[in-house]
Every structure is written in C-alpha cells, then in structure tokens.
Amino acid sequence: MKRIDRFPLGAHVRLSDLAIDPYPIFAGLREEEPVTWVPEIQRWFLTRRDDMLAVLRDPNLFTTDAPSTIRDMFGVHMMTTEGPTQIRYKRKCLPPFHASRLRSASLPLLRTEVERLVEGLRSDNRRTGEVRTTVARPVALHSVLSVLGIPLSETERVNEWYEHFARALANFAGDPDLRAEGKGAADAFGRALEPIIEALERDPDGSLLSDLVCDHVDPLTAEEIRSNALIILFGGIETTESMIANAAWALLSHPEQLGTARSSREALDLAIEETLRWEPAVQSAARQATRDTEIRGVPIAQGEVVHCMLGAANRDPSHFEDPDRFDVSRANAGDHLSFAVGRHFCLGAPLARLETRVVLETLWARCPGLRLDPERTNAPYGYEFRKPPAVWVEWDV
Prior knowledge:
Layout: H1 3-6, H2 8-11, H3 15-20, H4 23-32, E1 35-38, E2 43-46, H5 49-56, E3 62-63, H6 69-74, H7 83-93, H8 99-121, E4 128-130, H9 131-148, H10 155-169, H11 176-202, H12 208-213, H13 222-252, H14 258-261, H15 265-278, E5 284-289, E6 293-295, E7 298-300, E8 305-309, H16 310-313, H17 349-366, E9 371-372, E10 392-394
Parallel strand pairs: 2-8
Antiparallel strand pairs: 1-2, 3-5, 4-10, 5-8, 6-7, 9-10
Helix pairs in contact: 8-9, 8-17, 9-13, 9-17, 10-11, 13-15, 13-17
C-alpha cells in the first residue's frame, strides 16, 4: 500500500498551512494519524507527546549524528553528535549558563541593556512602539554575543548572518540556493572568529570563547570551537527573540490574565512557561533512524527522518487539560517540550527564560497600561521557527 494512501491526512499537510496555524492540523493528525508521512518534505511527523519523548530519549535509535542542513552549515557540534563527544562539547559550553554565572555575570548587563532598549522604545514621548525588532532581537543579540565573548561591534554583521542561517535551516524543501546562502554565512562567521580568538588567547576575558581557547587540559580544536559557537549563536538569537516576542504577544492577547501573571515572581515564571507551551518558538526536533524500527506499528526505515512536532506535544490532551486554552496558572505548564528533552535539551534555556522575564518586567514597569495596538495585530507565523512578524504595543504615558 502506497504511503500516500495509508496516510491521507499526512499527504495533505502543507508547510504553508502550518505556518499560519499548525494546531488544528496537529490535532487532526494526533487523533487519526499520530505517526504520518508528509510527502511535501519526505519525512515522518509525530504528534503525540509520549511518542516524542520515546524518540528524543533514545539517541541510539534516533540520532542527530547524521547528514543534515544544520550539520552541513555549522559542522560537527553538540547538536549533531551523540555519545561521549556530544557530552564533552556540552559540558565545556555549559558554565556560562549555570544559575550562579547568570546571576553574577549576565543579569547586571542584561538589565542595563533592556532598560536602554525600552527607553529607546519610549523615545520622543511616543505611546506606541514595536517590541520584536526594537527590544527582543537586540536583547538576544547582545546577550549571546556577551556570553560568547564576541565584540558588540560585530552585532550588525552577526544579525545579517543570522538571517541567512534561519532561512537555510527552515529550508525543508531543499532549495540549494538557500543552503549555499547559509553555508556562506557560516564560513564568513568562521573567518571573522579567527582574530577574535587570537585576541582572547592574548587577553582572556572570562567569556565562553575565552574559556575554550585557554583550555590547555582537554582543548577543543579550532573547528570544534567554531562549530559549537555557531550553534550557540544561532540558538541564542532565534530561541530568545521568538520566545520574548511570543510571550509578549500571548500575555497581551489575554489581558484578563495579566494581573495573575504580574502578581509575583513565581507567577510570572509560570506564565512564561505557559507561553512556551502554548506557542513554542521552535516547532520541531528532527531525528534520523539508525536502523529499521516501528512507532505505533508504523515501519520507519533506517535513514528516514522523524520530526517530533513539539507544538503538537505541547497541546496533547492526554497530558494537558483543555490544551488549546491559554492559562497562566496551569500547574503543569513546565512539562512542555519547547526546549526538547534528553541530552539535546537546549543549552541556553536558563538564559532565554531570564531574558524573557527581565524584558517583560521592564516593559510593564516603564510602559504603564501596556497593551497590544488594536490597529496592528500580528499573530505568530512560521512552520519551523515561529514568532509574530511584529508586536506593536501602546501604553498610557
């Protein structure tokens, strides 16, 4: 039986439809075809949370250590390896993301930068502004460059490279021009990194790159440093910018819940987890089967790619009651899979959460009566990386 006949719902899945609103499509698949074949991209989709947990927790059967766009573009790094090599890379890159380092090193710089950006949003006594491009993106860029140890003077170039990376990584259709564009940007980043690393070898500054290049006990090669820096750079921009924009949009779209979200630090943290569950910035995690296997009786051939649709997992009614409802008091909101799970859990999740909280707290403090501009509403968009094209807001004074 042909796959197109066995999986009729999957045969009608279109990336263009997922970009607009994936959740009704996910609901139908989860109910009728929880494991389905999507001909448009020649890959499997999973839409039930327990299936995804099983896949993401079994790197021996479902691996990231395989040919892919992200590997072709960035090289071998913590996201495209498994086993001892992956663990080594991640451990070496983890220290700046520990809670103590975030509080002592990142938080003071972050608060200063967010205050500056929000003040810029309010310049000329305006009472309206756009949050994603004027606050969320600059905050994400500033934070990840500071953590890595890349001079802030490189912000404009990094931002340009990032745009190429994002287009290439969302290129499920395999457009060779987009792939080459992303690879070219990654190569340009590598060339720009060489003098930065040389400077850090002479004058260490405590940044991640500084720690890596000054490690003489178990050093990474120059290529390993470059590859892992690239994935941290991309993830630090994409995940954080989208997370901030999605959180602002979700909370301001539900003004009746703002009082609860703002009632305490703990309440805001829980509300942020609900925004992550309800509208995740990254919609899927891909894994390649290392051997012939089955999921729910569906045969998956060795070498085929399985997409764990994280947005679908986060709205699985078997785990989340009334999952399409946005509820800042949802007790198990933190069970979302928006940062994946297992060994490839997002390295920068603690920093992304911190950035989102500081931005929201500052916006509320500096922009009384903050609300969405009713004349310029923009819902999140995107089938792989999802965020509002713009978050226009207004305030009272």
